[in-house]
From TrEMBL:
GO terms for biological process: tetrahydrofolate interconversion. Belongs to the formate--tetrahydrofolate ligase family. NCBIfam families: PRK13507.1. This is Formate--tetrahydrofolate ligase. It comes from Candidatus Desulfovibrio intestinipullorum. It comes from the Bacteria. The gene is fhs. It holds the Pfam family FTHFS. It catalyses: (6S)-5,6,7,8-tetrahydrofolate + formate + ATP = (6R)-10-formyltetrahydrofolate + ADP + phosphate. One of its GO terms (molecular function) is formate-tetrahydrofolate ligase activity.
Length: 591
């Protein structure tokens, strides 16, 4: 009998379920994978040979494709991964062959504030500990590939400085690249939230030694926000991955010409680190449905999508495949819609928007909940007025999905403190907006609690939809950013700093400009670029202060507002709860 999540923490529920979970060979066989397509990592995890699967099943029609996104979240998160897992379990209860694709958790949130992103309660994926920590090594490989490129870059700059004699340089086999140390575009990466590494000085010489590197300003980003992670998310196969790695622009030379990873001769070695990482991973839900895990989180500062490869494989094997996009629909779903679907050629059949009474109360004006502290009283008692006011945020997200031409299903992720009157208020707003709504109790009841949600999704998938792009590919980068700001965020326009406009003009002049995608960086806590603007703010303009460029991933990245690509660790980090039973080796305290 399943443990009660109201009284037992997630990690104990996971450990209890792991006593009777299926082997990964059983999961693969039930999914329709052949033995040679499965690459086990122990008894309960595996990688999938995607090339074999897609070669064998290439002519098979795809299953239905469902994306899970959310309203604007609170710092506590509103349960997208929990809903994704619960929906798959509910669909299975309805007799549908279903699968999920979720993103591998970053060690930053696992050890920081949000936890492992394995779901929660009776809607989790297992085995919890390996999934939440090193797993099959994908993020470690991404970090290594990224930092190998930075190692190659900084070493080349030092040697070019030291080898003033062209004959000595030629003997080393290195053409002079004349890299400008003030125009290094790539950054180091680390999979922790380490604010102390946002801005650093490297290559500090000691006692006049010239072999300690070239002293310069440098930066770290969290690994999930690295260009290598975006490339892994969007790559279609290993040749595509190798080609994109070579196109990474690591720096500019002294004539502002791009210097790429291929120019450094490091792209092949980077790819060598990723030959296993490109293969999607397979685990299971608490109820034994397949879960594909591939690519990373952080749609606010990166792509934040499950990988194209994982989705393509799962759609050949499942009748209904549920994938996940990060944070609210204005950033996670917008990138799914405008980048991932365009690149992959896939089209969603339905979109689930996760909402909670808690988040709606926040957008209605309740005090912000703070992780690790008691919830304000407004969240524990009935406050219909706050819910009603907060529904303006929900309506905005429904409209975003409707603009893409896809049916929207609002999933009210139920909490024990929700009241009938509060739920009725949400249902009234959803019905008025023409969106299906389901109250789902998957956290407390697993698949049985998600049957109403499963039925709403099945109904939505039977509806004809008219999926369409947000803008024409001939639109300039400035026009695309303005369209996203107005049509998706609800802004009155965009205020570009001069630096951003100069960079956009340079990128617009590229021969491949029409093939590049705009990938916004913006706070996840507001539809605007200001985390303090709750609800559905009006009368504001999006401020774009800088533009980054990921040439290998093909992404133009406008940076809006005050946000960093390296998150920070707060004063109440999750790692304080994590320990190991040294007698059994059991990890405790993960959530």
């Amino acid at each position: 009998m399943a443990l009660d999540p109201r009284h037992v923490p997630d990690w104990q529920i996971a450990l209890d379920a792991e006593k009777s979970m299926k082997t990964v060979e059983t999961i693969a066989s039930e999914l329709g994978l052949e033995n040679k397509e499965l690459l086990p990592y122990g008894h309960y995890m595996a990688k999938i040979d995607d090339r074999r699967v897609l070669s064998r099943l290439g002519d098979r029609p795809n299953g239905k494709y469902i994306d899970v996104t959310a309203i604007t979240p609170t710092p506590l998160g509103e349960g997208k991964s929990t809903t994704t897992i619960g929906l798959v379990q509910g669909l299975a209860k309805r007799g549908r062959r279903s699968s999920a694709a979720i993103r591998q958790p970053s060690a930053g949130p696992v050890m920081g504030m949000k936890g492992s992103a394995a779901g929660g309660g009776l809607a989790q994926c297992i085995p919890l500990v390996p999934y939440s920590l090193s797993f099959t090594g994908d993020i470690h490989a991404i970090t290594a590939a990224n930092n190998l490129a930075m190692t190659a870059l900084t070493a080349r700059m030092q040697h070019e400085r030291n080898y003033d004699d062209e004959k000595l340089l030629a003997m080393s086999g290195m053409p002079r690249l004349n890299i400008d140390p003030t125009k290094v575009l790539m950054t180091w990466s680390l999979d922790f939230c380490a604010q102390a590494l946002r801005n650093v000085i490297i290559g500090i010489e000691t006692e006049g030694r010239r072999n300690d590197g070239l002293m310069m300003n440098s930066h770290f980003v969290i690994s999930a926000a690295s260009e290598v992670m975006s490339i892994l998310s969007l790559a279609t196969d290993l040749p595509d991955l190798r080609k994109r790695l070579g196109r990474i622009v690591v720096a500019l030379d002294r004539h502002d010409k791009p210097v790429t990873a291929e120019d450094l001769g490091v792209a092949g070695a980077m790819c060598a680190w990723l030959t296993d990482a490109i293969k999607p991973n397979l685990i299971q839900t608490l109820e034994g449905q397949p879960v594909f895990v591939h690519a990373g989180p952080f749609a606010n500062i990166s792509l934040g999508q499950s990988s194209v490869i994982a989705d393509k494989v799962a759609l050949k094997l499942s009748d209904y495949h549920v994938t996940e996009s990060g944070f609210g629909s204005e950033i996670g779903y917008e990138k799914f819609w405008d980048i991932k679907c365009r690149r992959s050629g896939l089209k969603p059949d339905a979109v689930v928007i996760v909402a909670t009474i808690r988040a709606l109360k926040r957008h209605g004006g309740a005090p912000a909940p703070v992780p690790g502290r008691p919830m304000p009283e407004a969240y524990t008692k009935e406050e219909v007025g706050l819910v009603e006011a907060g529904c303006q945020n929900l309506l905005h997200h429904i409209n975003i999905v409707k603009k893409s031409g896809v049916p929207a299903v609002v999933c009210l992720n139920a909490f024990v403190t929700d009241t009938a009157a509060e739920i009725a208020t949400v249902r009234r707003f959803c019905e008025a907006a023409g969106a299906r709504m389901a109250v789902s109790e998957h956290w407390a009841k697993g698949g049985e609690g998600a049957l109403e949600l499963a039925d709403a999704v099945l109904d939505a998938c039977s509806e004809e939809n008219h999926f369409r792009p947000l803008f024409d590919r001939s639109a300039t980068f400035v026009e695309r950013i303005e369209t996203i700001a107005r049509e998706v965020y609800g802004a009155d326009g965009v205020k570009f700093r001069d630096l951003a406009l100069r960079k956009l003009a340079t990128l617009q002049a590229r021969d491949d400009a029409a093939d590049l995608d705009v990938c916004m960086v913006k706070t996840q806590y507001s539809l605007s670029d200001d985390a303090k603007r709750i609800g559905a703010p009006t009368g504001w303009k999006l401020g774009v202060r800088d533009v980054l460029f990921h040439g290998g991933a093909g992404l133009v990245i406008p940076v809006a507002g005050d946000i960093s690509l390296m998150p920070g660790t707060g004063s109440r980090p999750s790692f304080r709860n994590i320990d190991v039973d040294t007698e059994t080796g059991t990890v405790t305290g993960l959530f």
